[in-house]
Design brief:
Layout (H helix, E strand, L loop, with lengths): L1 E4 L8 E4 L9 E10 L2 H7 L16 E8 L11 E4 L2 E3 L5 H4 L10 E2 L11 E5 L4 E2 L6 H4 L5 H11 L7 E5 L3 H12 L3 E6 L5 H7 L3 E4 L5 H6 L5 E6 L4 H7 L3 E9 L11 H6 L3 E4 L5 H13 L6 E4 L4 H9 L6 E5 L1
Parallel strand pairs: 10-11, 10-13, 11-12, 13-14, 14-15, 16-17
Antiparallel strand pairs: 1-2, 3-4, 3-8, 3-17, 4-5, 5-9, 6-7
Length: about 325
Amino acid sequence: MKAAVLDGPNKDVRFEERDRPAPRRGEVLIRVRACGVCHGDLMLQLGQFPFARYPIVPGHEVAGVIEEIGEDVTELQPGTRVGLSALFSSCGSCKQCVGDDEFLCSQMQFTGITRDGGYEEFMVAPAGYVARLPDNLDFVDAAPLMCAGLTVFSGLRHAGFAPGFRVAVIGLGGLGHLAVLLVRAMNGRVAVLSTSADKGDQALALGAERFIDLKVESSATALRSWEGGADIIVATSPVADSMVAAFPGLALNGTMVVLGAPPDNIAVSPFDLIMGRRRLMGSPAGSRKDLRDVLEFASAHNIRPTVTRMSLEDAGNALKEMHEGRIRGRAVFVM
Ligand SMILES: [Zn+2]
Ligand SMILES: [Zn+2]
């Protein structure tokens, strides 16, 4: 089978012919049908995860079919349609693991970062960490939910989203466009902030009521004119300056949730923070419960990501195009 491999930081994607792996006790073998390309894959290529293990097969937005099961796997059968997120495994017994918060487990293993991921035709995964895909969700639409959708959904949940909230979304890439779709489906209101004026039409078509061009308008002023500011700002673009500039555009008691990791510190004014009782928080992808919930929600509300289909052979180009900001929606390898 074919696998795309990164040998270390700042290396090009290399292809390798490998034997199909065999599932061990408690594992399943997944025939990968679609795998999304996440900004995290680019960070992996750039060497920005100190805990990454190279050589590695990237990819943590996996959607596929179970091909084979290992010993002691009882809940899943060959033919079951499943997905796998960045949460490859965790200890299973710490406070976080028993509290539906496995993504904060100190023993967590990351799909496609510390364990081989979905940039290959077949991969093994622990049976307890794969999620069944709802029947009406096809593989290509499901893949971007495994990280982009999950991260946004979990971030909104932890930021205290409620129907009617005004949510500002910074950036309209993989996470950003799913944030617009999810917030609208949850009866929230959306403004999109972007440095690309040409994303305005897409933002409105996805359901945003405002588009704020960061090259023309001050984000804080524009957001404050939106009935006093945003209740939640979902910061998906990994640009610290955009986050700092937008922060005073939060309503009183508002929360900025940082999902994209900028290389620089995010320095907000303590007066904006204290006097408006505002919060600045981060949020990693999400738990298995979050994943089940976002899949169910997407299925019930017919959430369909904007996808650029590619083949696995394009892996090198996909990362390059992502680096240059040229991908529309989410790039997904279709096997
Ligand atoms: Zn990701
Ligand atoms: Zn744990």
